[in-house]
Amino acid sequence: MAKVVHIKTFGCQMNERDSEIMGQLLSQNGYVYSDMPEAADLILVNTCSIRDKAEQKVYSLLGQLRELKEKNRHFRQIRIGVCGCVAQQEGRKIIERMPHVDLVLGTQQLYQLPALLDQLEKGELHHKVALDLDANFAIPPFQQLLRETPTQKSSAVARPVQRYVNIMQGCNNFCSYCVVPYTRGREISRPLADILEEVELLVAQGVREITLLGQNVNSYGKTNRVADQAITFPDLLRAVALVQGLKRLRFTTSHPKDLDRGLIRCFAELEVLCPHFHLPVQSGSNQVLARMNRGYSAEEYLAKVEELRRMRPDIALATDFIVGFPGESEQDFVATIQLLQDVRFHSSFSFKYSDRPQARSTGFADKIAEDIKSERLARLQQKQTEISLAWNIMLMHKKVEILVEHISAQTGRGRSAANQVVHFQLQPGRSMPAVGDITHVLIEHAGPHSLRGIAQ
Ligand code: SAH
Ligand code: SF4
Ligand code: F3S
Prior knowledge:
By secondary structure, the protein is α/β, with parallel strands linked by helices. Helices cover about 35% and strands about 20% of the residues. A hairpin with a 3-residue loop joins strand 16 (about 400-405) and strand 17 (about 410-415).
C-alpha cells in the first residue's frame, strides 16, 4: 500500500515552494498526500524562524505530534521530519529537545529526502541530521519534479493557475535583525535556461500567473552563479515575459537599495508584469534604517517610489514594517507613520521586532518594551487600514479585471493585477467563468482587505 505523507508549512513563499518540491519528490517515490496528519505515515514540518513566535509555533506543533506518534505506536510507525529554517538553525538541538523527531533536514537538503527516508526505513540512517549549506550549491534540475500524480494534493493543486518559481536562494544582505542569511546561506542564482524551461512547462500545463521567488530578487545574477552568465534581474523579467500564454508575472521580494532604473523601466514596458510591487521599507527613520543595515535612507526610498509612479502611475505598492527595533524612539516611530502616509501603501505587513539567534541586533542595547511595541503596531496597522480602505473605495462602481482563482456554485474569487482580493457573484443569465479565466467585476462593495462585486 502506498505510504501517506502530510506536510505542514510555516513561513514564506520560499517554504511553500520547498514543500511543493518535497511533495513532488515523494509522489515519485510512491507516497500519496493527505491533508490530515492523523492519516499520515510521514509528517514533515517545514519551519520558519523569522520571528520568535514563528519558532515557538513549530515546537508546539512538534509537541502535539509526539502525542499522535505515541498513540499510534502499537498500530503503525509514524515518521516525523523537520526541515526549513528552524531545522537549519537548530540542527541537532531539535532532536535533543524532541527525541521523537526522526529526521532534521537543512534548507539545501530537501532533495536528499527520498534517499534519507529510504535509509531510515532500512535502519541504515546513521545521521538523523543533514545540514550542509554550501555557497556553491547547484539547485538541482527540476524537470522531473513537475510531474504530479492526481492523488498528490499539495498547495500546487490548490493553486492550479498560479505558481511560484525559484530564481535564487539565500541572502547576502545581513540586515542586522534577520536570520535568513544564516538559515538559507549565501545568495545563489539559478541559470536562466532552467528558469525559462520551468516557466514554459508550467504555462503549457495551464498555469496563467507566475511569481518569481527569492529573498532578494533584484540582485539576481550578481552573486554566486550556477552557470556563467551575465544576466541581470531585468533581463530575466524580459525573457520570462516573452513566454507565450503567460498572463501575469509577479516577483518577490526586492531590496530597495538594489532597485535601479532598469527594473523600474520593466514596470512601464512589460505588459504581463503586474502593477504590484512589494518593496519592504522596514522603517521611516534614517537612524533606525542605518542600525538595521538596510543601505538606504527614507529620502532615497521615497525618490524611488516617485520614479516608480512616474513610470507606472497605477502601480500598487506594498511593504513590510518592523516596529520597536532596539532604540526606536517615539520620534523614529512617527517618521515611520509619516512615510506610510507619504507613500500611501496599498497594503503592508507589520511586525513587532523580535530577537533572533545570530542576528546582530540581538546584542543591541535599548530594547523596546513589549507593551510599547504592541501599542505602536496597533497605531501603524490602524493607519494602514484607513489607507487600504481609501484605495479600495476608489474602485467602487468601476470594472476591475481579475484572474479567477476559486469558484463555487454561484460565487467566485479572484485577484486584481494590483493583488486585491475580489469576491464576485454572477450577473443573472451569465455562466460561471472557469478557474484561470480573466474576467471583469463591477465593484459594489469595498472593504480594507477585499472587494466585492458582480462578474460582467
Ligand atoms: N527578503 C525580504 C523579506 C524577509 S523576511 C526583505 O528583504 O525584506 C519578511 C519580513 O519579516 C521582513 O521584511 C521583516 O519586516 C520581517 N522580519 C525579519 N526579521 C524580523 C525580526 N527579527 N523581527 C521582526 N520582524 C522581522
Ligand atoms: Fe533578511 Fe535583509 Fe536578506 Fe531580507 S534582505 S532576507 S530582511 S537579510
Ligand atoms: Fe521564514 Fe526562512 Fe522564509 S525564516 S520567512 S521560512 S526564508
